[in-house]
Every structure is written in C-alpha cells, then in structure tokens.
Amino acid sequence: MTNFIKRTISGIGFAAIMLAAFLTNEYVFGVVMLLSLIIMMKEFLQMTCGSSYRYSQMLSILSGATLFILTYLFKGFGVPGRFVILAFVPVFILMINSLYVKDKTCFDKFSNLYAVLIYIAVPWSVLNFAVFNAAGEFNGLLLLSFFCIIWGTDVGAYMFGITLGQKYGKKLFPSISPKKSWIGFWGGLFVAILVAVALHYVGIFRFDLIHCIFMGALLCVAGVYGDLIESQWKRHYNVKDSGNLIPGHGGLLDRFDSALIAIPIGIIYLVMLNVL
C-alpha cells in the first residue's frame, strides 16, 4: 500500500508538470523540456559510462542541450535556421577531447557519448516542431495528444497483458522484455486507436478520421519499439531502472522511452502530409 501511494503521488506530480509544460506557454515548455533532456542524457550516461569520462559526459550533455535550445529558438522565436548548425561545435570539441583522454582502458564506453545524442537529444529536439507553427505561435495540444496516445497504449497493454497475456498467447520479445505479450500489444493498439479517434471527435486532432486512426496505430507501434530499445540498453547493463527520480516509477528515461521514438515518427508523418 505504501508503494502504491508513493507511485500515485509521484505519478500525479509528474502529470501535473507535463500538463503545465503543454498548456501554459512556450517558456514553461522550454524550461521543462530542456531539464528533462538533461536529466535523461545524464541517466543514460550514468548507466552506460558510470564514472568514466566525467568531463566528456558534460560535453555530450552540453551538445544535446545546445541542439534543443537552438531548435527551440529557430521554431519559436524566429532565429535563423542556419544557427542550428552551431550545435555541432560542442560535438567537435567532444571528439577532439577524446584524443587527450589519458586512461583509455575503457575507451569503448566513449561511443555512448555519441549514441546519447542520436538516441535522446535529436528526437527530443524534434518536439519543438510539434508545438510551434510556421508563425512561431505556441500550442502544446498536439504534443499532449501524442503523449495521450502513448499513455493509452501503456494502459491498454498493461490491462490486457496482466489479465490475459500472462496466461494465453506468446511473448512479444522474451529475450529483451519477458513480461510483454502479443495480447498486451493488441490491447495497447486497440486503446491507442480509441484515444486517437476520441481526440478527433473532441476537435484536438483536426485531421481526417482515417489519418487519426493511422496515427494511433503508428504511435502505438513506434512507442512499443521505443520501450523495447530502452529495455535492451538496461538489460545489457543489468539495471532495473534508468534512475530513481520519480519514486515508484524509476527514472525520467523510463517514462519517456516510448516517446523518443513515437513522437518524432508522428511528427515526420504529419510533415509528409504537409499539415504541420
């Protein structure tokens, strides 16, 4: 019961912060998302690099933060897009710094300093394309809708998986995540599509119904892959959670693992439709 109360309170607090980021203004969004990025990168590097290359880890996080900030300024405040290329400067410094690392006994870990940029910083920076329109006006409802579909997927997968998936059917990816089942996946897909259709009828998803259904399915599938990708990292490094920031829930990367894949794919889909 104590753990349940802890999970509930921390979950409500987490949801409140996220709602504030999406529904208030661009400044709250920018601060919350930037801090989230930094924390997720720190969690990943702690998991993969530990105490090795502390200075280089800071350079890697600086590179990711710079990319997010420049993309944020480009989309929301009219800063010319050419300045986004400045995000490469800390990356070049990181590369050069690797030459001066004296202890290279664990140099294979250095690759994770680059992996975290592709895995976390780049997808997270793409979120800016969902909240700012062509005129630089802020509206977080679309991004909130993406998260609602992802959370709906998680709820559906848990409900169907815990009631039916553990008894019937095959496991989805037993070598990486033994508890996930195909029944849970189909349950998550069903709920994701229901959420997308509901968002359409309340006027938040202002796309054709067929596109909303496809969006629900697309975000569900991509989110499941995002969850599995993080699970693979954790299994390789033999850790249960990426961190302990959220009591009872683990780290921030554990909360956003699905979003790192699903949301950029959803944004790409809408860009290809020329509606974003």
Can you give keywords for this protein?
2 strands; globular; 10 helices; mainly alpha; 2 domains; two-stranded antiparallel sheet; 276 residues
Could you walk me through the main structural features you see in this protein, from its secondary elements to its overall organization?
Helix content is 71%, strand content 3%. A two-stranded antiparallel sheet has the order 1-2. It has ten helices and two strands. By secondary structure, the chain is mainly alpha-helical.
Secondary structure topology:
Layout: H1 2-23, H2 26-49, H3 54-77, H4 88-99, H5 111-126, H6 128-131, H7 141-165, E1 171-173, E2 177-181, H8 182-201, H9 209-236, H10 252-272
Antiparallel strand pairs: 1-2
Helix pairs in contact: 1-2, 2-3, 2-5, 3-4, 3-5, 5-10, 7-8, 7-9, 7-10, 8-9, 9-10
How would you spell out the order of helices and strands? HHHHHHHEEHHH
Q: Gap between N and C termini, in Å?
A: 45 Å
Helix amount: over 70%
Helix-strand makeup class: mainly alpha
Largest sheet: 2 strands, antiparallel
Shape verdict: globular
Unreliable parts: none
Arithmetic mean pLDDT: 90
Strand order of the largest sheet: 1-2
Rg, Cα atoms, Å:
19 Å
Number of helices: 10
Number of structural units classed as domains = 2
Strand element count: 2
Q: Could you tell me the strand content as a percent range?
A: under 5%
